[in-house]
Amino acid sequence: MLSPMQMQSTLIGSAEACRILQIHPATLMRWVRDGKVAEAHKLPGDNGARLFSREGIERFADELRQLDAAKRSERSEQAS
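The structure corresponding to this sequence follows.
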């Protein structure tokens, strides 16, 4: 089990998640709502901050980059 200090270092806020994913905050919230991105924790209150696993966000960003590369490759093959 992670210590509170280790857990804190692996959690990031919405702004950092958006920076890593290179998306707008509204897109992140839509992806959370749609189940594409899982939040690790939500702080109390109606406007409580959402926290995300850095590893999960980085893994998802890698998946998005791979999908984007595959789409670009497919388009270039079709254009040939």
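The radius of gyration is 16 Å.
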